[in-house]
Fold:
Amino acid sequence: MNDHFIGKKSHFLIIMLLVLMWTSCKVEQVAPVPESNKDLTGTWKVLQATRNGTNLIPLFDFTQFSIIFNGSTGTYTLNNPVPFIELANGKYSLDNPQYPFTITFTATGGKAVPTAFNYPIINGSREIIMTFSPGCAQNTYVFTLTRSN
Amino acid sequence: MKVRLHIKGKNLWRLCTLIVLCIVLSCCYTIIASVDQPTTAVVGSNVNITVNVTNSCNSSGTAHFVFGFLTPVGWNTAQNAKVTYSSTKGNGNMVLIPSTVIAPNSNGVNWTTYMMNFFGLAGNLIADVQWTAYESDVPINYNNGDKINGTVNITFNNIGADGNPTLVKLAYVVANDQNGFTFDGNDGDSSPTSEYYNELITPCFQLTGGTGDLVDFCNPQLTTINPPKSLDNDIVTLTYNNNVTPTALAGASAVYLCATATLNDGTKVTVCNPSATTMLTETTATSGLYQLTFWPRKFFGLTATQTVVSMTYFITDKTGATQVGYGGGSSPFTYTFKCT
Structure:
């Protein structure tokens, strides 16, 4: 009789163990964090500038030039223009708000000008790197912009 | 009973050395024996050039013959030059090497970049020349002891496509697509050279006629503009070299730009007032090189619809009274804003 009781007890424990194992397993739901939209809003100034690989910073005064992006209106404003993708104010857009590789400038009354766009984080802050040719196509300029505010 | 294997170290080293030598010497040494080219030609004419090449092979193998040709960028050599070869191993066309092909021993760059990195401007003073790279349309088979003679034949149509009278040192390079620009260090063996490549720079070639400004790659100039080809919306650097020839500005403490722009509407704008805007800064103390980097549109105060077609200019002293022009004389320097 004791053996029978012990046998029943063992079966009960095994069943309980299986139930516990069954209920302890569940699929964990991991919610992906969405990539944030890239917001260029702010005033940007030239940090580095090259022409066909030559450093222009010691040769040309870029300190007065700035470009103000307004993310809510999609407009940009140039202050004290230098040779750039556009010489007049207008609108801008990114090819992909989360993963942009191209920025398009459209000066007021002008045509859209797409330009290669890079938006890395350098030393903890965003920079904009743009490559363009404002004059002859074989002359390539690379501007690195940094936020001034 | 143990069986002992006897390998004599001396023989083993000999065998290894032979294998290494076979690998290292498995190609042909190439030399440009001479180049037959005219000393002068007229812009827009057709020019024939013959490059005489000899090869000396130390083993058997197969390789494409590679040829490089240095010319001004504005000549559009890839489009305007037809290149063929004839040799004791056969005749054929030299075809452009695609820019996607990585040259051997080049640290991962294509042939034209490799040529520019290795041979540079070939003595030209303005960085507006380029190498154009060709290879034989078929691989060339060679055998140990082969002495291969051949010619590279260039037919240059519409030479000087940019319309500029030009003085330039044309340069030529021969190599193969297996070794690149390497050598084996075996000077004194049966081969005439230890390099698997060879370069020949010719004396200054003169191109006359044309409607553009004279571009002199050969001789130091009093002034140069960088980039050599630019528009008024480029940032340009004007360099004045006070060392080229004695001028009225010798010993000047500061020099200035006095320029007159011709605009697209035919009007002329002159900026000729010694000031911070027009001052050329000496690159280093006593260098004699003075530079001014400026944006022509802003320098000449253009409106949105105006463009600068060309400019004439002098270099002056602080008073503006002493002016130096082309060749140190009284005629102004000239520069045309264009991209070709």
